[in-house]
Amino acid sequence: MWAFIKKEFFHIFRDYRSMVILFGMPIVQVLLFGFAITNEINDAQIAILDHSKDVVTRELTQKIVSSNYFLLVENLESNNQIEAEFKKGDIKQVVIFESGFARKLEKEGKASIQLLLDASEPNTANMLNAYTTGIINTYSMQKMINSNAVPLSIQVDSKMLFNPELKSVYMFVPGVITVLLMLVSAMMTSISITREKELGTMEALLVSPLKPIQIIIGKVTPYVLLSFINLVVILLLAKFVFLMPIRGSLVLLLAECLLFIVMALALGILISTISKTQQQAMMMSMFALMLPTILLSGFIFPIENMPLILQYISHLMPPKWFIIIIKNIMLKGVGISYFWKETLIIAFMTVFFIGMSVKKFKIRLE
Amino acid sequence: MNKNDHIIEVRDLVKRFGSFTANDHLNFTVSKGEIFGFLGANGAGKTTAIKILSGLSKPTSGVAIVAGFDVAKYPNKVKKNIGYMSQHFSLYDDMTVKENFRFYGGIFGLSRKSIREKTEYYLEKLKMQNFRNMLLKQIPLGWKQKLAFSVANIHEPAVVFLDEPTGGVDPITRRQFWELIYDSADKGTTVFVTTHYMDEAEYCERVSIMSEGRIEAIGSPGKLKEEFGVNTMDEVFVQIARTPLDPPIGGTDRGNSFKKQVN
Are residues A9 and A51 in the same domain? Predict the structure, then answer.
């Protein structure tokens, strides 16, 4: 048994491709999702067309520019320039103050600002719009307080719970953990088992006194270990690089992850019993596991917004339940009583996959 | 050594897949220390029979006793007492010669010390001491094959099954390989070998020839040639199989045998 596990490590460590997948992936993915693919806005390029050029507009401009979200690159002089600016493509937003802004504000109690946004990237446009409106509203609130005027408008005060700064890392870390555990556990095991089939060494193993269960355990143990190391690396990165909190019990988190790893391994074994070649195992893992994990698990796209049929399909995806569990532990800090159902679902899936692979395995031996 | 000790005993062995009969009432025995050639065209049912004898597959009916154990009842005891080598050689390309020995010794439960001794013994015998720490993929095919045979023998099995061990190897290397086979038979290991090379069939003490799931002839090569009134095993084989002899690897008959199994 020990000899077997050692042999498996030889395979992994001598194949630089699997090394890259095993240890490069987690780090690259976390950093990619954390830094590059972000939903937050930093230094969006804007232009300002100030027809008024008075104290108030200058103050507002100052507020907007100093918010860190925007970078003022151009002060426009006339409306004619606007279209040309947008066409250049760098400018995402133009803020236009009407003429006599401060005067109107004083006299009539209202003045208008026009925001023009480049909506060829709708998400960005939406966010820029929200940020700018937010800044302007804050400013006018302060003004009112200072002038002791009675605020007439209704104030909407939304508070973001569990992730007050709406950090996208909070969303990506659980997702990346899920994707990687799935990838390492299911794909790597299915590939390594089919490789033995392809090379004909599986025959020799089956003819040896090793029981099939020993062969399976020998094959998957290294991947359990490596998946676990990966998990710890991701959690460390999340905690120390992205300052993501782990509010719930760490032991519980690791235990749930272990359950998910076992589930993924069972799935990998199942894939290896139905595929004949490494190529086939890889394709199957890619299409059957990776895409649904990324697309249907609620990792990136909220499940509630999907068509009903996809929502039903997503119930069949183990990652969906797992993401709910880790978000609960990491962000809400709640205990098992809040997600025992999800845990049970994954446990049930694990048993189901193991049962299926045992059945397939037996048929093949007949 | 008592040549009448039957190390393999097969009585009325039948294996069916649905309506297709792969092994149709096989009856034969193999003695201790004998080199037994198990011949037949592709799809004749050899692989099925070997799978049963090595405890991988259960017979539909009939009895097969290998190394003193009924394969259907005690497959694991059988597995402990047999060695197996296929045309794939079953060695790991990304491990060194030494590591391959250590791995297979390990799964057969040998102690570290005896694995070390065995490894040295075989490397010396094959004059491959310098290859010890080389990865298998750097070693030529002929050498690999000899190593695979030694690895299959590392736990001193009573029987070693060789399933087309010389596929794709040149005649000189094949000859050297047969010297190894004789060597281990002299030490009392029974060698059960399938092959498509009829010159190799001549090296066996006794051969059986299968066709369509039945054993059509069994006996020493000399006796069979006499019986069929021909000069070579080649001709004996062709008469029995009644199909042209396949090329040794990837023969055109593979497709047919596959269809047969599916039907």
Answer: no
* Residues A334-350, mean pLDDT to the nearest whole number: 89
Instruction: Note whether residue A90 is domain-resident.
Output: yes
Residue A154 resides in a domain: no
User: A226 and A300 in one domain?
Assistant: yes
pTM of the predicted protein model:
0.72
Structural domain including A268 reads: 2-37+167-365
Would you state the structure tokens that stand for residue A344, as one six-digit string?
């049970």
A230 close to A181: Cβ distance less than 8 angstroms: yes
Q: Is B95 left (phi over 0), alpha (psi -120 to 50) or beta?
A: beta
Are A205 and B108 inside 8 Å of each other by CB?
Answer: no
Is residue A347 scored above 90 in pLDDT? Answer: yes
From chain B, pick out residues whose CB is under 8 angstroms from the CB of A366: 57-58
Average pLDDT, chain A: 81
Residues A117 and A209 in one domain: no
pLDDT tens-digit profile of A86-117?
888 788 888 888 888 888 877 777 778 888 88
Task: Output the pLDDT for position B249.
Answer: 47
In this complex, do A3 and B56 lie within 8 Å of one another by their Cβ atoms? Answer: no
In A, minimum Cα distance to B105 occurs at A3
A33-89: pLDDT as tens digits: 766 655 566 778 888 988 888 888 888 888 888 887 888 888 888 888 888 888 887
The partner residue sitting opposite A4, judged by closest CB among B57, B95, B107, is: B107
The tokens for A317 are 């995806």
Cα three-residue angle A206-A207-A208, rounded to 5 degrees: 90
Task: Examine the pLDDT at B135 and tell me if it is beyond 60.
Answer: yes
Question: Does A112 map to a domain?
Answer: yes
Please give the Cα distance from A128 to A291 (Å, whole number). Answer: 30
CA-only gyration radius of chain A, Å: 28
Interface touch B86/A366, C-beta < 8 Å: no
Nearest residue of A to residue B98 by CA position?
Answer: A7
Cβ contacts of B118 within 8 Å, gap of 6 or more: B101, B105, B110, B154
pLDDT at residue B20 tops 60: yes
Q: From the CA of A206, how many Å to the nearest CA of chain B?
A: 7
Domain count, chain A: 2
Interchain pair B94, A14: CB under 8 A: yes
With an 8 Å Cβ cutoff, are A205 and B107 in contact?
Answer: yes
Q: What are phi and psi of B135, to 5 degrees?
A: -70, 145
Establish if A153 belongs to a structural domain: no
The pLDDT of residue A149: 57
A208 and A172 together in one domain = yes
Co-location of A219 and A358 in the same domain: yes
Distance of CA A149 to the CA centre of its chain: 45
